TrEMBL record:
Family statement: Belongs to the SIMIBI class G3E GTPase family. ZNG1 subfamily.
Catalysis performed (reactions): GTP + H2O = GDP + phosphate + H(+)
Coiled coil: none
Molecular-function annotations in GO: hydrolase activity; nucleotide binding
Domain (CobW/HypB/UreG nucleotide-binding) ranges: 10-172
Role this protein plays: Zinc chaperone that directly transfers zinc cofactor to target proteins, thereby activating them. Zinc is transferred from the CXCC motif in the GTPase domain to the zinc binding site in target proteins in a process requiring GTP hydrolysis.
Gene Ontology annotations for the cellular component aspect, listed alphabetically: cytoplasm
Identification of the protein by name: Cobalamin biosynthesis protein CobW
Organism lineage: Bacteria, Pseudomonadati, Pseudomonadota, Alphaproteobacteria, Acetobacterales
Organism for this UniProt entry: Teichococcus deserti
Transmembrane portions of the chain: none
A Pfam family of this chain: CobW_C
């Protein structure tokens, strides 16, 4: 295989019946969706979603049936991605711009993305989109940890079913679980799909979050102290991934390089999968800080992980208010 690779691997998550397949079909109908491949994971033996997507028209489509990809099909997922790339190359076609994995409604994004380790040499840029049903979000959050894990892992949260309920409550709930995600509340299907699949990572990084409505999800602000060196920063993040494991749902923020060259490095972590650091211009919107979303871990737990580390850890909402008041 050549060194050419898809620009993106997009994980499309969302609880059962929240509109993932509809969102994907609306996207595939747009001209911007050219050079897209789709992998559909269905938890049951009948691949209904795959059949619906296939009905959208000719496109590279692969199915992962009879199992939740985050539990039992991770090797199949890697094999399927490799097969799609090889088939594309053998056909003499240009590389895919993106591969979209539509997960089953019960999947957790963290284990899926961690399973992609064997594909690291391809240099895929990974991001996650989650659908949030305006009519059912509060009930799902109250009873299913999978819902919170999906929202917490997302770069973009798309509020759906706006014909059935107002979007304010679902939007506030999503902001409380994941204040880092861009939130799309758009009733027009085409505009909603276009925004969902083209909103860049980092679009909502500085948006303060409301108090998290999910009792097991903690959102924490991590600030490095003045005597923290570059190795201290990297060591702390690596230690967090090892310490938290599957309890780490999301980490995002900025680091400032040791050399003061006016740049900031965007940190993107889903589960324990670290995306490559990307450079951005340093502005007031890129302060050196990390936001950590974790399940069943308090700020005190995070402090105890490395008690001598030169960091300050607080609740994210408090830190956002402090930054706003400065």
């Amino acid at each position: 295989m050549t060194n050419e690779s898809p620009a993106e691997f997009i994980l499309l998550a969302g609880f059962l019946g929240s509109g993932k397949t509809t969102l994907l079909r609306d996207w595939l109908a747009l001209p911007e969706a050219a050079d897209t491949a789709v992998i559909v994971n269905e938890a049951g033996q009948i691949d209904i979603d795959g059949a619906v997507i296939a009905d959208s028209g000719p496109l590279p489509l692969a199915m992962l049936s009879n199992g939740c990809v985050c539990c039992s099909l991770t090797n199949d997922l890697v094999f399927t991605v490799q097969s799609l790339l090889e088939s594309r190359e053998k056909a003499g076609l240009p590389p895919f711009r993106r591969i979209i994995l539509e997960c089953s409604g019960l999947s957790r994004p963290g284990p899926i993305l961690r399973s992609l380790g064997p594909l690291a040499p391809l240099g895929l840029r990974v991001r996650a989109i989650a659908t949030c049903d305006a009519a059912q979000a509060e009930a799902r959050a109250a009873h299913f940890d999978e819902f919170a894990a999906q929202i917490a892992a997302a770069d973009v949260v798309v509020v759906t079913k706006l014909d059935q309920a107002e979007g304010e409550a679902a939007t506030a709930l999503a902001a409380g679980i994941n204040p880092l995600a861009a939130r799309i509340v758009e009733p027009d299907p085409a505009r909603r799909a276009l925004a969902a699949f083209t909103t860049p990572p980092g679009a909502a990084l500085s948006t303060p979050g409301a108090a998290a409505p999910h009792p097991r999800i903690g959102v924490h602000l991590v600030e490095f102290l003045g005597d923290a060196g570059w190795d201290d920063r990297l060591d702390w993040m690596e230690n967090l991934a090892a310490f938290a494991g599957e309890r780490l749902l999301r980490m995002k923020g900025f680091l400032h390089p040791a050399e003061d060259d006016g740049a900031a490095l965007l940190v993107q972590v889903v589960g324990t999968l670290f995306s490559p650091l990307s450079r951005m211009a340093r502005t007031a919107r890129t302060p050196e800080a990390l936001v950590v979303i974790a399940r069943d871990l308090t700020a005190q737990d995070l402090r105890s992980m490395a008690p001598d580390a030169p960091v300050r850890i607080s609740r994210y909402a408090d830190g956002a208010r402090r930054a706003s008041a400065a």
